[in-house]
Amino acid sequence: MFALNNLDSLLELFFDGVIITDKDGMIVKVNKAYLKIAGKTADELIGKDIRSTVGIRLHSNESSTMRVLEEKRPVTIMQRSTSDSGYKEYMTTGMPMFNEQNEIEFVVNCVRDMTELNELKQHLSRAEQMNQNYLEEIKNLKQQQEHENGLVIYSKAMLHVKEAATKVASVNSPVMLRGESGVGKEVIAKYIHHRSKRAKGAFIKVNCGAIPASLMESEFFGYETGAFTGANKEGKPGFFELADKGTLFLDEIGDMPLDLQVKLLRVLEEQEFRRVGGVKTIRSDVRIIAATNQDLEEMVEQKTFRKDLYYRLQVYPILIPPLRERKEEIPFFIEHFLQRYQEKNAIQIQIAQEAIHVLCQYDWPGNIRELINVMERMAISCSNGEILPDHLPRELFGNLGRIIPKTFAEEVELFEFQGMKRALALHKSTRKAARALQMSQPTFVRKMKQYEVKYTNDPKMDHKNMQ
C-alpha cells in the first residue's frame, strides 16, 4: 500500500508542483511549488474535491486526475491558464498508485511550468533563423572578403583601417600601428609595404622586445670586423642596411631602451648611421612602420619613451580594433585558416555551424592569434574531418562544449545555461546578470545551481558573486 506518511520533506525537493489526490479525487497532499503555481494556500486545497476546487484557473476543464482514474494509466496533458502574473502553460503528468488489489488508491500529479521553456524554444528558433540568414548573407557577400597576405576584411571598422593603410602606402611617412596584441598589426604593416613603391624592396620585421639590450645597437646598425669578442670575422649588416629601399617594421617599439631610442631618432632624421666599430657613414633609405600595444602617451609622461621620437613615429597613427569589436569577421578568419590548413597538410577538414556559432560568442582576449591557435588545436583533435562543438577547448568554453544534448529540452537548457554563464561573467553579480536577462534573481540563482549540478557534476558552486 502506498503510504503518505513522511512525504512532506520529500515533496519539497521537487522543482515541479506536486498535487496528490485519493481514488475519489479528494486532494490529500500538495507541495510548496504547486501552491506557488496555483496561488493558493494548503488549507484552501487539502480535503477539497479536485473537480470542484481547481488550484489553477485553466482555459479547459480537462483534468489529468480524472483521466487517470478513468483510464487507469499514466496521463500527460498540456494546460493553459491566466493568472495575475499573466499567461502560463503547464505540462501535467498524472501517475496512478495501485494497492495490493491492483486498485487505484492515489493519483500523483506533477505540474511543470512550461512558459519559460516554450519562450526559450521560440528564442532558439528565431536564433536559428537569424543564423541561417547570416549564413546566406555570408554566401552572398563572399566576393567581398579579402585574403591578401592574411588580411581579412569584412567589418566597417577594418574597412576604415584598410582605407587608411591604402592612403599612407603611397607616401614614405612613418606609420604607427596601435592595438592589442594579436590584432594583426604585422599583417597591416605588410599590406602597406606591398602597396607602396617599396614593394620590391625588403620587408624586415624587428621585435624590439625580443632582442637583448646589449645586442640591440649591433643588430640595428651592424658591426665591423673585430668590433667585439665573438663578432663575425667578416662583420655583419644591421637591420637598416638590410631594409634599404624597403620597409623596417619595428614591432613592440615601446620596449626599445632609451639609449637606442636616441640613435634611432638620429637615423630617422639624418638618414645615415655607422656600424658598431666602424668609421664609414652609411646612407639608408628606409621606410619605418612601428607598432605597439602599450600606452606610449603615458610612457612619454613617465619619461620611459622619448617625446621627440614619439612625435617622429606618430606621424600617421592607425588604430586596429580588437577581434571582439569585429566578430562578424570570425567566420571569415575560420574559413581562411581552414583553407590554409588544408593546403599545408593536404587534407579535407570542415567545421560545423554550431561550432562557428560558439566561436563567434567568445570575446577572444588574445585576438586573431588566439583564434588561430584554437583553430589549429581543434583541427588536430577532430578525428572525422569535421570540427564539432565538443572539440572546443575546455579552458575557453567550460564543460558545456563537450556535452551532447540527448533531448530538445536538454538542448534548450544548455543554450540557457551558456547564456547565463556569459551574463554572470560579464556583469559579475547574479543581480545584474538576472536583470540583463530579464529574469528574477532567485530564478537565476536557482537555475544556475540546478544546471551546475546537472551539467558539470559540481554541486559546490562558487557563490562569492551570487549576490
Biggest sheet features: 5 strands, antiparallel
Structural class: alpha/beta
> What is the CATH H-level superfamily of the largest domain?
P-loop containing nucleotide triphosphate hydrolases
CATH class of the largest domain: Alpha Beta
Q: Quickly count the helices.
A: 19
| Helical residues, percent | 40-55%
What's the CATH architecture of the largest domain? 3-Layer(aba) Sandwich
Radius of gyration: 34 Å
Strand order, main sheet: write it out: 2-1-5-4-3
Strand content: 15-25%
Number of strands: 16
Measured distance between first and last alpha carbons: 46 Å
Looking at the structure, what is the overall shape?
elongated
Report the uncertain regions.
Answer: 142-147, 458-467
CATH topology of the largest domain: Rossmann fold
Domain tally? 3
Average pLDDT rating? 82
Can you tell me about this structure?
With 467 residues, the protein is an alpha/beta fold. It has 3 domains: 106 residues, PAS domain (Beta-Lactamase), CATH 3.30.450; 168 residues, P-loop containing nucleotide triphosphate hydrolases (Rossmann fold, 3-Layer(aba) Sandwich); 68 residues, Helicase, Ruva Protein, domain 3, CATH 1.10.8. Helix content is 43%, strand content 17%. Helix 6 crosses helix 7, helix 17 crosses helix 18 and helix 18 packs across helix 19. The radius of gyration is 34 Å and the shape is elongated. The two termini are 46 Å apart. The C terminus is likely disordered. This is HTH-type transcriptional regulatory protein TyrR. InterPro entries: AAA+_ATPase, AAA_lid_NorR, Homeodomain-like_sf, HTH_TyrR, P-loop_NTPase, PAS, PAS-assoc_C, PAS-like_dom_sf.
